[in-house]
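Hey, weird one. I pasted the Stage 0 sporulation protein A homolog sequence into the form twice and got a warning about non-standard characters only the second time. First submission, copied straight from the form history:
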Amino acid sequence: MKILLAEDEKELSNALVMLLSHNNYVVDAVYDGEDALSYAQEIDYDIIILDIMMPKLNGYQVLSKLREKNCKAPILMLTAKSHVDDKVTGLELGADDYLTKPFEMKELLARIKALLRRPQNFNADILEFGDMYLNRDTCQIICNNQQVVLNKKEFQTMELLILNSKQILSKDLIMDKIWGYESDAEINVVWVNISSLRKKLAKLDSKVTIASIRGLGYKIEVGCD
């Protein structure tokens, strides 16, 4: 398996090359975005690893240009610790995964193996609404450099609200879509679920709200500043 590693910190790059070579990967190491783009366009790599902060062209620019050229190789982005916006931007531009610095070497190897198992047409799936993002792959809400994980019902409810953001969704409709027609659950589980989502949005200080429309149901909205 052949890997392109684009990382401008030479000490880190050398350590990664040694690790990957020891695990039987063939590695080409470059130290700026222009070389990364040139190598990636000339050679068919099994995986491309891009640091975001590189000279000449940053990781976003390289990623965007490669996807525009229909490059199908899985791309793993290396991001600064806790920069959630970096992750979201990379995923939206077509990255397959991200890893925050500092990271454990065994985690990098695990991510690489996971990417190699994915079908080539796999893309991270993100919904955007207002100032928040819903990552369908990880069931996370991302907002203001923070993230929270949703349970299955919370995720399904949030997804339903975003996809139908121009409509008011009744309790019965949400109940049927999320719990199913034959569920034994009481209708008040809808309110409990909505209440939990509101608390998580508030925790992220998001402008997104879930409004109660008296006698009709719920609607997702973006509040005013």
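That's the output from the first submission. The warning seems to come from a hidden character in my clipboard, not from the data itself. The two ends are 50 Å apart (CA to CA).
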